[in-house]
Amino acid sequence: MPTGKTTMTIAALCSLLVATAAMLASPAVSASPIDIAVTRNHTAEQPYFDIRASGFANATPERVWQVLTDYERQPDYVPNLLRARILSRNGTEVLLEQDGRGGLFVFHHAIHLQVRITEKPPSSIEVALVSGDMKRYSARWSMSPAEQAGVSGTRLDYTGAIEPDFFVPPLVGNAIVQTDIRKMLEAVIIELEK
Fold it and tell me: Disulfide-capable partner of 117 in 28, 89, 94, 95 (CB 3.0 to 4.6 Å)?
């Protein structure tokens, strides 16, 4: 027979899973749909989350480039990004320091990163880990002119491979990453469409 402590833990986990499912099923805040796929990959090196996300913004490619490369202003609108500071810039290479928070419900963790950004105007931005609270971190933004429902704008594609340097619960890991990426992409699109 389970103890009161075990019963409470199981009940809390069930509540967490139900709440996570409800959150993921809720409609996106932005007007256009956001497609996201998060898979857990295992390699000889280490496991990691593989991320593929895309959305449409009613904004010109020039506006998208301007917003996505204004790194120090991103904490103003990106959830869980608390601080971003450019440490150095050399042409199209930027060394950026970021502080943020990742996770869902009780699974929150402070994240500190230094990343190297390679800008390839006007169509892509590549991000690579230099140091910080990740075992693996790389990301790429790709932007291209597009049309959706007769409206001209920009298609945004985000790909990434991440593995935190802290425990992520296996049962809800994909949901945590998917929720964080969805919130980020929604916030970016809302900012782009202002």
Answer: 94
Cα–chain-centroid distance for residue 100? Answer: 11
* Whole-number Cα distances in Å, 151 to 42, 57, 59, 81, 154: 40, 10, 10, 30, 10
Yes or no: say if 111 and 132 are a contact pair by the CB < 8 Å rule: yes
d(CA 161, CA 45): 13
Other Cβ atoms less than 10 A from the Cβ of 47: the count is 14
173 to 8, 22, 40, 130, 192: CA distances (angstroms)? 21, 16, 8, 24, 29
Cβ partners under 8 Å of residue 71, min gap 6: 84, 86, 94, 96, 117
* Closest residue by Cα to residue 85 from 114, 63, 120, 126: 114
pTM of the model: 0.79
Reported as a single tens digit per residue, the pLDDT across 102-121 is 754 455 678 999 999 999 99
- Give every CB contact of residue 168 below 8 A, 6+ residues apart in sequence: 107, 176, 177
Q: What is the pLDDT of residues 93-103, one digit of tens each?
A: 999 999 998 75
